[in-house]
Amino acid sequence: MAQVDLRHWRLGLVGFGNVGQAFGRLLLEAEAELRERHGMTVAIGLLATGPGGTVTAADGAPPGGGIDLRAALRGEIVDERPSGRAGALAAIPDAPIDALVEMSWFDPVAGQPATSHVRAGFARGAHAITTNKGPLAFHGPELRAEATERRLGLRYEATLMACLPVLALRESAVPVGTINAFEATPNSTTSFVLDMMAAGHGRGDAVAEAKRLGIAEADPSFDLDGWDAAVKAAILAQCLLGRDVRLADVERTGLDAVPDGEPAAAAAAGCRVRLVARGSAAGPVRVAPERVPAAGLLGGGQGTSQALAIETGLAGRLEICLVEPRIEQTAYAVLMDLVALNRDVSSGRIRPPQG
Ligand SMILES: NC(=O)c1ccc[n+]([C@@H]2O[C@H](COP(=O)([O-])OP(=O)(O)OC[C@H]3O[C@@H](n4cnc5c(N)ncnc54)[C@H](OP(=O)(O)O)[C@@H]3O)[C@@H](O)[C@H]2O)c1
Hints:
Blueprint: E1 7-14, H1 18-38, E2 40-49, E3 53-56, H2 69-73, H3 87-91, E4 99-102, H4 114-123, E5 127-130, H5 134-149, E6 154-155, H6 158-161, H7 167-173, E7 179-184, H8 188-198, H9 203-212, H10 221-224, H11 227-241, E8 251-252, H12 262-268, E9 271-280, E10 286-293, H13 297-300, E11 306-312, E12 317-322, H14 327-346
Helix pairs in contact: 1-14, 4-5, 5-11, 8-9, 8-12
NADP nicotinamide-adenine-dinucleotide phosphate (NAP) is lined by residues 14-20, 48-51, 85, 88, 103-106, 113, 131-133, 158-159, 327, 330.
């Protein structure tokens, strides 16, 4: 269906690594559908990368203009006067952008400089989409309040479970009434390692295989010790339960607590071991390994699959699962957020892009 009034979005991409480049490829692929189905055009007004420095669009990123995404994906967009990683923060105030997409490094101590990027975007009237868990895990409630006050959007679908629709579930499936509790398996790496252990591999071999396949980081302790799941549990509690829960508030137990023989013993009993995140309206928010039925939601997904169940006041129990997500599904979550921003402009909830 042809749209008469196209809304033009100028994006600032901060961080252009695995997720950033996957999102760049997806944007090119989705360009026609965004225009025809959602009435949106997109141009890149700012590109900040670790290696290439920070570049802003000299033409102001009008429709059909801006930074050449194809050239960026070939690594050809490079700052002539490299400003290092501080370049993004310095450039945001004057960059031609309507939405900042924060995809830089996750800082597990304070969520910086990503939080400053989001705030600098807000200060110049830019909506925010973040794949970076830092801003939400450390400053989520303040950032939400600031966004609401400025009539700006703050979207973070990719911080949770790739494109498993968590924000979308809250907004569309439970638009009225409370969510009383959630349970989830938000960390793929631990599920993969536990399944390999259940199949008889040693813990060290399982972790090495996860690294070889790119499922685990070079230093996998962030996943194995439960930190990643704890960060996500905090964000889930904020998003689904409306609670002010930060990383420091989450009770965390990692895979160290799982005896070597437990995954295989669980399998023999028709179960799987999973690192499960749980939260409820008033109780503690926790992450811990649990034996869960292999025929149920949390234990049902193979390998890197991720699942979420919510208990609602009015809509009953809802269960969803994302099967074996890859980097493309994380990038898809960013695209979901972008379309959601456009929808929220249409409903008058947030301010329109100025491009
Ligand atoms: N990969 C996933 O599946 C996934 C899923 C969900 C969420 N996330 C989150 O999404 C974010 C990006 O992940 P990724 O896998 O794409 O990581 P990545 O491949 O390491 O990419 C991050 C990029 O950001 C750059 N960077 C770091 N600080 C910067 C700054 N101040 N200004 C501009 N660029 C900066 C890095 O440059 P250098 O190379 O110089 O460090 C790197 O190119 C992370 O916060 C991650 O936790 C990732």
